[in-house]
Amino acid sequence: MGRKWNNIKEKKASKDANTSRIYAKFGREIYVVARQGEPDPELNQALKFVLERAKTYNVPKHIIDRAIEKAKGGSDENYDELRYEGFGPSGSMVIVDALTNNVNRTASEVRAAFGKNGGNMGVSGSVAYMFDATAVIGLEGKSEEEVLEILMEADVEVRDLIQEDEAVIVYAEPDQFHTVQQALKDAGISEFTVAELTMLPQNEVTLDADAQAQFEKMIDALEDLEDVKQVYHNVDLGE
């Protein structure tokens, strides 16, 4: 798989002088999923997932509580979930997931982030077919063999399981996210370094130094947009 999930997360979290931007994005996402269903994570699987993911980014409890209370309060603030697809330097591929209350603004900003950094937006479906939706769960304190044994005893099927530095990373079908995580929790594991539903490229590409520098600038510009929730790509950045 080769994505070095812990390093990717740390890079995202440390890019800002503070993490207020990441927290704000989580607050918006929590509000949206809590408003779409029950504001109780035990009754709303989508909310439960977002909260698990927020935990891996150390989102403060007061931000989570405020977003859920806002949803309970019947706020009429509406957001649309959008997906943009595009190409970066040297034919690299990018998927951008956004959550916005102004579709025209977001489309314009995403298009500009691509265009100003050597990329261009594509039509729907031009890139996504080269990616696979995947659940990714990471943990520390257990060996690859121990995690495999836990999952086998729980009769849980996964796509892959590998060691990355000090962490074990489990890759599974998206609909198995909660099943995998629950099996690990039942075995006494309560902390996860990664808890993501992501889009993994079927093949990664390597760029030369100049193209990679331009590509990273483009990814930074996309991730910095207020409305952008997640950015996926097929470039091996050597993390």
Automatic annotation (TrEMBL):
Transmembrane stretches, by residue range? none
- The UniProt entry lists the main location of this chain as cytoplasm
**Keywords attached to this entry:** Cytoplasm, DNA-binding, Transcription, Transcription regulation
Describe the location of the TACO1/YebC-like N-terminal domain by residue ranges: 3-74
Compartmental location = Cytoplasm
GO function term, MF aspect, one: DNA binding
Domain TACO1/YebC-like second and third as annotated: residue spans: 79-235
Family annotation (NCBIfam families): PRK00110.1, PRK12378.1, YebC/PmpR family DNA-binding transcriptional regulator
User: Family, per the entry?
Assistant: Belongs to the TACO1 family. YeeN subfamily.
Q: Which PANTHER family match?
A: TRANSLATIONAL ACTIVATOR OF CYTOCHROME C OXIDASE 1
**Protein name according to UniProt:** Probable transcriptional regulatory protein GCM10008967_02090
- What is the source species? Bacillus carboniphilus
